[in-house]
Specification:
Length: 410
Amino acid sequence: MGIGKEILVWIEEVMMRRLLLIPVVFFAVGLFSSALLAADTFELVIPLPLTGKQAKFGEMMKRSFEMAADEINVKGGIKKKKLVLSFEDSGAKPETARAIVEKLIDVKKQPIIVGEYTSACAKAVAAVAEERKTPYLVVASADDNITQQNYQYVFRQNAVNNHYGDGVVSFLKEVVKPKTIAILYESSAFGTSGADAMVKDAEKIGTKVVLKEKYEAGSVDFKPLLTKVRAAQPDVIYMVSYVMDASLLMKQIKELRLDAKLFAGGAAGFAIPEFIDNAKDAAEYVISATLWTPQLKYPGAKEYAERYRKQYGEYPSYHGASAYSALFVVKNALERAKDWKPDKIRDALKMTNMTTAFGPIKFENREGYQNQNFMETLVIQVQKGFETIWPEKDASKKYIFPIPTWRERR
């Protein structure tokens, strides 16, 4: 009986050990599966303004990033790894954008940063990326200063503010031939650098700047400012604004029946569908600088634009096209990089030379900029909807100039 009891005790002990091992085995299997899953994906967290005044831009860019990721994954991903995107909301606040990116680099060990919209946020992100020696691809932020810091890890895909107006300046010189111009701009990094660039450009084409006035973003009454414009009697009124201010400026210009030979915008708020939606008929005949239009003949540009319109009911602006194309630039760099450590990704980005739906992408050091993509800028005009009018080789419709006065409009 004693021996039998000992055998039973031994059997119970063996069974208990096995039962205790089961959770350990499942835990180990879980860890192994997670490791396998991680090995089969490349996770990219993108900071964007998804709430607040710039959320419209952030939303368009988010949609475009997602469209690109879907296409990349359908075609096998990046080196057979699925591209998994997620987004963090900066609210267009530089301190929030900085905190997000510090976490992505320091905690998540993300080897490349992509995104942001406002120049103020991009400048904050660029400083962190350079400090942490992690490559950062700027997608839509235009303040010249971002790529004038001798940063080695910051790359910009979109044009700089100093060149945003190139197409508009060419149109003014060749078609409008204005003697005077008034410049209105919001007191942000983007607004200030855009206004300063137009001052220089106006001087080059012999146009006198009769007024240069800044305003605080989110202003609701531009009439005192527009009274100064009326007194200056400029041939052209040039505005550098985000969308709500752009719309309100034109609505109040119409209310005051303030006439000029031309109303022009420095991209941003003047180049997205919400400008027409908000300003209504006050937007008609306004021209704007832009970096891209759906009518351009870059490979994939028309297809992207049509897919976006079909899915979201309107065409994207250049902000969306740049975001969409940015992921293909990232894919290209990652596939050429020797490994996926930040330094090697930086080296691969430096050698980028490709054409995207947004246009040619090549990062150069020239004109005092580092790792900057240089591109042709265009002009659009509101003719019921946006039409590309300049350069003429890219035009979808003939420009309308002279424009009718407010009294002549129905």
